[in-house]
Structure formats: C-alpha cells, structure tokens
Write a structure and sequence with these properties.
Layout: H1 6-24, H2 31-40, H3 43-65, H4 71-92, H5 97-121, H6 131-148, H7 151-161, H8 166-190, H9 196-220, H10 225-245
Helix pairs in contact: 1-2, 1-3, 1-9, 2-3, 3-8, 3-9, 4-6, 5-6, 5-7, 5-10, 6-7, 7-8, 7-10
Membrane topology: Multi-pass membrane protein
InterPro entries: TM_pro_TauE-like, TSUP
Pfam family, one: TauE
Length: 246
Amino acid sequence: MPDLTALAWVLLAFSAFMVGVSKTALPGANTISIALFAAVLPARASTGALLLLLIVGDMLALWLYRRHADWPALVRLAPAVGVGIVLGVLFLAVADDTWVRRVIAVILLLVIAFTLWRRRRTSADAPTGGRIAAWGYGSLGGFTTMVANAGGPVMTMYFLASRFPAAAFLGTAAWFFAIVNVVKVPFSIGLGIITPATLLLDLVLVPAVLVGGFVGWNLMKRMPQRVFERIVIVLTVVGALYLLFA
C-alpha cells in the first residue's frame, strides 16, 4: 500500500467517486479522475490503478444499463477500433508523452467541432453516426485509448452523433468500455503497471466508485435529454483542453 497523506486519500476517493458518476450518468466526468490520479500517484501507477476502478464502474454500468445497448452499433465499431489500437501501438513506438497528449487533444477538439457541425446540418432527429462515422470515430477511439486511456471522449462524441437516448447511450458505452478495458488488463500486468500494491489501493477505493455510480444513476433518472447532451459536450471539451495544456 502506498504511503499517502490524508489529503491524497481524499483526492483519490473523490476521483473514484467521479469514476462511478461518469459511468452511470455523465460520460467524460472521469477526466477529473485522470487528472487527480496523475497528480497524487506516479504516472504508471496511476494508469494501472485507474484502469481497475474504471472496470468496476463498467461492471456497475452494465448491471444498470445492460438492456439498453445498441449491439449493431458495437459490431460496426469493432473492426475500426482494432485498427486504431494497432495504429496507437505504432505511434507509441515513436512519440514521447508530450506529443501523445497534444495529438490526442487536437483530435478530440476536431472531433467535437465536426460532431457539432454535422448535427447542425442535419435535422434534429436524424442520426449522424452511420457506417462511415463508425470507422472514423472507432479508429480514433481505438488509437486514443491505446496511447493514453483517452478513448472515452472520442467514443462519447460518436454515441452523441448517433443521437441515442440517454439510457441507450450509457448502455452502449458500458459494453464498449467494459470490453476494451478488460482487454487492456493482461498488457498492463505484463508492463508492471498493475501490481499487488495497485490491487490493495483499489480495494480501499472501490466503495467510492459504487457510491458515485448510484448517485449518478439517481441523477440520470431526473436529467432531461438536452441537459445530458450539453453536459457531455462540455466535459469532453474540458478533457481535451486538459490533455492539451497539462
């Protein structure tokens, strides 16, 4: 178990709480968790610890929203995400941390601008997340999740472009991220990112994830669709700016 101050534990507990909220109500809110974990723990340790908490949040989201997933959308995304992951591996072989963050931030801002532009050019109810969009967003999502665990904002924009109702949005995202995050675990163990100390730390923080998840779930039941979409966009922009200037 890492030797941390009381303030550090408070920050980690709050971060874990926000992981739960992000998985059950406000996709993109876990940007706060990424920032705080990186501030409190060494970079590699923070990545491994946060990955396991994200998986706990994924499991909770699946339990709550498992019946709302759009499986045809997930099937369309699968090949593109695979291509993106391979490209991410190649990029990591030649880029340093600074370039990784900046490239992903620029991609996110372009994705947000493109998504909002497409939504304005189409009717209010017409989805803009078809097959071509699935390849574009899916490859970018695979790329960003491989290089910096930052695939959430990209895929959030795809689900937003598809104009899913809030429950379908969260259910489809839950299955997507649960599968992707579990696939990362063996690689993280092999790289020494996940260790016995990581498991002990996360055991202490798991209750905060569960509390955040149920708080988010109750919030979701009272949130209008338009408010949900606006909050998602704002949090995604914040995440992109954090990666760009951190």
